[in-house]
Amino acid sequence: RDDPFDGCDFTGNAGCPGVNPPFDYVPASDAVYQERLGLIAEQIVGDLHAPDVVLVQEAEDQDICTVAAGALACGAANNADGKPDTLQELALRIEQQSGIAYDAAFDRDGSDDRGIVAALMYRTDRVELLPATADDPVLGSTPDFTYRSGANAYNADVQNPKALNAPLPADVTGSRDGNEVYTRDPQVGLFRIWRTAVGAGAWVDVYAISNHFSSTPDSRVNQRREQAADRAEIVQATGSSRVVAGGDFNVFPRPDDPLVPASDQLGPLYAKGLLNLWDTMVAEVPAAAYSYVFVGMAQTLDGQFVTPTLHDELAQSRVAHVNADFAADFPGDGARGLSDHDPMSSRFALAATLDRLQELLEYYCGSGAITGNNTCTQLQGHLDRVPKVGDDQLRAFIGQVRDKTPRFITPTAADALVLEAQLLLQG
Description:
Layout: H1 30-47, E1 53-60, E2 65-68, E3 71-74, H2 85-98, E4 102-105, E5 116-123, E6 127-129, E7 162-163, E8 187-194, E9 203-212, H3 221-238, E10 243-248, H4 267-271, E11 275-276, H5 277-284, E12 292-294, E13 297-299, E14 302-306, H6 308-312, E15 314-319, E16 344-348, H7 354-367, H8 375-389, H9 391-403, H10 411-425
């Protein structure tokens, strides 16, 4: 669809300042677009197994539509609902094909001159995009890091997700892409991911950062190193033990390098103690540890850097080889060859702990799912005695939860509390 507020998103548009050649190519027809949308939905659900959070690169910066009654309704108003239209349409297609509901989010400040933007998608059945607060160290009004060249004014916006950028320092020499650190800002999102469903089971809060660094591994070298340094500062500023920064880094991970001597363009990320899950794949499935094919050569341009806590909780990380070297041979040949990059998917284990069970009990007591004069106090008493008495108090906790359901405890809360306690008993 043609965005009336964008001069270079549709055939025949006048073009955008600084964009050469005009970025105005579109699918051959709506039917072609709809077919491709369905195939992308198939990849997300089938090949990636419907991940809780999706880090998206190269979405379209368009927001003239809203979702109404399960369909996309588009008009002539800009900033219709603060969400990327194309990803909302993709989410609708995913739900049509699988019944799994996704939502999409972005900060439009992060778009480049062509209207390309990074974004995030998340499953609404078990993931919440948390409200931004003014005192959040990254999403708030005063981010807890000072980039050496200052910061763009919108860095002070209070929102989730949030784009951050800064002027490119004058001492960044050589080839460069624009006058800011990024042409496509990182999108920082804070999510609460639940074990079973929103409001049911233990949860974990995770910062997820969608990245799209400048292209061409052997060019824009110093700018890309600045991008890595900025990313490392953002991760550190969150103050969180659970952060994933993933996407298209447009350069090879250590020890590979496009230059001699080695340029180590992602060095600042490693220096902050972040761990690249590409290394896990190299150790486990070395033949499959690539995400891109250039003139017949397998390369890795995409990855996920995680904090040590998330790395310890990693269950598996793999690349789904459905695009880069696996093109469809004919129309209707399946969900293959939809991008020049292969998607990477990682799964993390959410361990059952006494602390998480106590947090869940506090959540239900505060939300009104548990009532009665002494119900919460009695249940908390069992958990307080677990460190000294042991598993018998967990069994007593389970028994009391069942006894007080449904009169004082809702069935949903009871099921979640019992499940967490049982997982603890199983070790």
